[in-house]
């Protein structure tokens, strides 16, 4: 199905150009709407009927759903395309970690804290987990509800994981107004769970392992009962059946994006944690490796939510990194502002370094300078967000552009020295940079982790 | 509405490339007529080829060295270990030692290392140079002659070197060619066109759209690979070849090799970095993976087979 154009949107707007929305014209507003850069409510001139029509027209192929409330809220879904190069993926995959309800108090607290504290810094972003999946492992509704009560104060939103409507109701009685995700409605409990979702106004997951035809039926039932916020779990079958799981995820998303099948236009949820839960005998490393492997498979093919069991950092770093990569916007360069940056205490004798404004490059260098307690100036060249050797090969990084940067930053008034440390990969440019800037060039190490030592020893 | 599986029609077909002939057990790459197995059965599982070097490679990360330290002096033994102990479908012989700045071995010496590996194992070979644009075509020519009729994959032909010579060596001695462009679909198309002008057919070419590792531009690789495979299936004859990934690039990422307490042991992190890099590209269309770590190879092979069964 073709994408909504600004013209499609414009046709439904009042066309009075009253400027209340903050745009100069209805056409300008239509353009912003079609690019998802404005909110429809900003137009003050719409009748309810027109608003509904436009809202439907602008609705993404995959419905956006909110889990949690206020500062805890996480949005999932919102995707429009099957392939990220066509536009971008939106609302990165929410990562929840399994917490069984049979832990004793101190273990329970410890686990929640581990989940909330886990953090990995990459290219200036702090990558974190998103949610807590409380599982009714004990089978005891009271225990489940008591744990849920404790999560009232958690930093992250909660998934309530039980097929037992009684346990679900008891837990919802405590935290139902925080918009936890109900997991899950199955063919056996669907009406009871649907009632709970309606009563507490919570999003609800439909679980139909290995059978997306049945899943469609269940979704239709929920929709017919007035339930709107639905998440789809087609089952995460591990081992040899992972191929079936992949098929089910891909088919579900295709039906949503290409066929606009109303029963599939919802976020998808996978449970790599099952690898750990189902393979008691394997060792922890094997299980962690496999769990991460399944997570990367499903994240690549459309999972909007994943429930994991492992919370070891070596397992989570690749998962968090893959998520960061998949959700970058292909339409925007990943760059930092060019110019001059200072590290530590600088004075007129401080070392002067050069790098490019590609985010990954800049933040890698920044991290190394900080962790090595270096005192220096860093000149950041505008390479339209290209790494060192990419920019050299592409012609954005040369003697002339470096000379311009030296002038623009005014570094010549800040330091007495005229020595510039360049990346090892830029060695072939050293002559040309010396000619253009009149500075002495020192070729630094290839990897910036060695820079702080290099400054101490050589500068 | 009723449930109907979303199966699409694709006007194009990916060529099937045979690697290995003569004294080798052949493997087959490509041949797809659809993106997924729920649309059409997938003809061939993904293939993993183990990296082997003609010199002991001091720079390899420790988690890999520890598996091969006993055989690194001998490419033949190294290849044998990769096949016998670790189940490699293929072996990639990198002739790094021919690099003018490495050991400057002659093309003839390079060819001898290839002969040694051909003797040691009966799986098909990828043969790579040192990355020197002047010398690689000469090294590949000598290796191609030494492996006459064994149908190796010559790595690689690219715009920076005399690819005519690489193509001619393949045509003369019955090999296939790896056509390498740097994350650029148009450059890939041009190079493939030139190679076909030089006498190669679709069935003689494997494309390398460049593997940017996890966290180091993997999204660029994803986008290019997706577009390339869709282009081929939609009917573009210049993109209807199977694809290869230099998955080993993953080991260049500091998250894979750098010792850092807060990141957990590299023994587990490193292999995962390689698995994530390969698997992501597999899910977007890559057919053959050049890899280093035994555990990564095992997992990628296993999961790849379940996606195509
Ligand atoms: C991702 C990638 C791309 C992406 C761009 C990503 C980006 N935004 O930069 C895309 C696909 C767009 C791309 C395009 C091209 N690429 Co490219 N690309 C790569 C790749 C795979 C990774 C680059 C990367 O992200 N590195 C990570 C960053 C962090 O590294 P870095 O910036 O160098 O920083 C490190 C060091 O330099 C050092 N450092 C940084 N700053 C400083 C400062 C000081 C003082 C010191 C001491 C050290 C230091 O520490 C950092 C951490 O280690 C490399 C191959 C590879 N594996 O390296 C090829 C590569 C760089 N590309 C290459 C080429 C040829 C190109 C193209 C010209 C291809 C073409 N013909 O179109 C284009 C050019 C595009 C342009 N500029 O207009 C070649 C360059 C060959 C060469 N050395 O001449 C490479 C090496 C691939 C190859 N083997 O051929 N590329
Ligand atoms: S507020 Fe509505 S009617 Fe007024 S200019 Fe904006 S889009 Fe047009």
Automatic annotation (TrEMBL), chain A:
Residues 1-60 form the 4Fe-4S domain. PROSITE patterns: 4FE4S. The keyword Metal-binding applies. It is an enzyme of class 2 (transferase). Its cofactor is corrinoid; [4Fe-4S] cluster. Binds 1 [4Fe-4S] cluster. The keyword Translocase does not apply. Part of a complex that catalyzes the reversible cleavage of acetyl-CoA, allowing autotrophic growth from CO(2). 5-methoxybenzimidazolylcob(I)amide binds at residues 355, 361, 385-388, 448. HAMAP family: CdhE. [4Fe-4S] cluster binds at residues 18, 21, 26, 43. Heterodimer of delta and gamma chains. The ACDS complex is made up of alpha, epsilon, beta, gamma and delta chains with a probable stoichiometry of (alpha(2)epsilon(2))(4)-beta(8)-(gamma(1)delta(1))(8). Its EC number is 2.1.1.245. It catalyses: 5,6,7,8-tetrahydrosarcinapterin + methyl-Co(III)-[corrinoid Fe-S protein] = 5-methyltetrahydrosarcinapterin + Co(I)-[corrinoid Fe-S protein] + H(+). Pfam families: CdhD, FeS. This is Acetyl-CoA decarbonylase/synthase complex subunit gamma.
């Amino acid at each position: 199905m073709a994408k909504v154009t600004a013209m499609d949107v414009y046709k439904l707007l009042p066309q009075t150009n009253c400027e209340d929305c903050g745009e100069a014209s209805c056409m300008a507003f239509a353009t912003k709407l079609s690019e998802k850069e404005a909110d429809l409510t900003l137009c003050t001139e719409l009748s309810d009927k027109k608003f509904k029509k436009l809202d439907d027209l602008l609705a993404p192929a995959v419905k956006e759903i909110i889990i949690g409330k206020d500062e805890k809220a996480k949005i999932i879904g919102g995707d429009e395309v099957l392939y990220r190069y066509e536009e971008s993926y939106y609302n990165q995959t929410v990562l929840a970690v399994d917490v069984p309800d049979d832990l004793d108090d101190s273990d329970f607290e410890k686990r929640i804290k581990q989940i909330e504290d886990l953090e990995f810094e990459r290219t200036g972003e702090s990558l974190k987990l998103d949610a807590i999946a409380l599982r009714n492992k004990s089978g005891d509704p009271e225990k489940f509800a008591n744990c849920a009560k404790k999560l009232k104060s958690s930093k992250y939103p909660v998934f309530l994981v039980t097929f037992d409507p009684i346990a679900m109701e008891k837990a919802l009685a405590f935290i139902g107004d925080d918009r936890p995700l109900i997991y899950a409605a199955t063919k056996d409990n669907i009406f009871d769970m649907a009632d709970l979702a309606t009563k507490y106004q919570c999003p609800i997951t439909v679980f139909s392992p290995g059978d997306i035809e049945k899943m469609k039926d269940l979704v239709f039932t929920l929709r017919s009962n007035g339930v709107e916020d639905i998440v789809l779990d087609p089952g995460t079958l591990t081992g040899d059946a992972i191929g079936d799981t992949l098929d089910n995820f891909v088919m579900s998303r295709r039906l949503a994006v290409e066929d606009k099948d109303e029963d599939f236009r919802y976020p998808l949820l996978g449970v790599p944690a099952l690898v750990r839960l189902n393979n008691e005998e394997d060792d922890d490393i094997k299980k962690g490796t496999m769990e991460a492997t399944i997570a990367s498979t499903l994240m690549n093919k459309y999972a909007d939510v994943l429930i994991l069991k492992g919370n070891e950092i070596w397992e989570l770093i690749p998962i968090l990194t893959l998520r960061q990569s998949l959700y970058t916007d292909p339409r925007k360069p990943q760059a930092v502002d060019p110019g001059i940056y200072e590290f530590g205490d600088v004075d007129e004798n401080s070392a002067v370094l050069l790098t490019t404004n590609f985010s990954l490059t800049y933040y890698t260098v920044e991290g190394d300078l900080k962790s090595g307690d270096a005192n220096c100036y860093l000149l950041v060249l505008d390479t339209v967000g290209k790494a060192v050797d990419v920019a050299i090969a592409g012609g954005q990084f040369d003697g002339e552009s470096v000379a311009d940067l030296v002038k623009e930053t005014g570094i010549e008034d800040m330091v007495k020295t005229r020595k510039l440390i360049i990346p090892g990969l830029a060695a072939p440019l050293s002559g040309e940079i010396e000619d253009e800037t009149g500075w002495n060039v020192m070729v630094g190490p290839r990897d910036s982790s060695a820079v702080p030592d290099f400054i101490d020893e050589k500068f | 509405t009723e449930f109907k599986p979303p199966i699409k029609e694709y006007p194009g077909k990916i060529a099937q490339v045979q690697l290995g002939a003569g004294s080798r057990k052949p493997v087959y790459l490509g041949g797809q007529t659809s993106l997924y197995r729920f649309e059409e059965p997938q003809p061939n599982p993904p293939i993993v080829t183990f990296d082997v070097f003609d010199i002991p490679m001091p720079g390899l990360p420790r988690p890999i060295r520890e598996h091969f330290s006993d055989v690194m002096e001998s490419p033949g033994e190294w290849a044998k270990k990769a096949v016998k102990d670790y189940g490699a479908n293929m072996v990639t012989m990198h002739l790094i030692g021919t690099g003018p700045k490495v050991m400057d071995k002659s093309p003839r010496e390079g060819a001898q290392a290839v002969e040694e590996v051909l003797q040691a194992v009966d799986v098909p070979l990828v043969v790579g140079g040192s990355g020197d644009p002047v010398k690689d075509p000469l090294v590949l020519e000598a290796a191609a002659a030494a492996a006459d009729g064994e149908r190796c994959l010559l790595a690689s032909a690219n715009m920076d070197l005399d690819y005519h010579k690489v193509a001619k060596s393949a045509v003369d001695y019955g090999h296939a060619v790896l056509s390498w462009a740097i994350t650029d679909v148009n450059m890939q198309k041009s190079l493939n066109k030139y190679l076909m002008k030089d006498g190669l057919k679709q069935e003689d070419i494997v494309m390398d759209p460049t593997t940017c590792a996890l966290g180091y531009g993997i999204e660029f690789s994803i986008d290019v690979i997706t577009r390339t495979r869709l282009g081929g299936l939609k009917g573009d004859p210049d993109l209807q070849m199977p694809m290869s990934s230099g998955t080993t690039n993953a080991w260049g990422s500091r998250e894979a090799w750098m010792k850092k307490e807060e990141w957990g042991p590299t023994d587990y992190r490193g292999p995962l970095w390689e698995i994530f890099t390969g698997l992501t590209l597999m899910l977007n269309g890559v057919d053959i993976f050049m890899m280093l770590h035994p555990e990564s190879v095992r997992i990628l092979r296993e999961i790849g087979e379940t996606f195509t069964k």
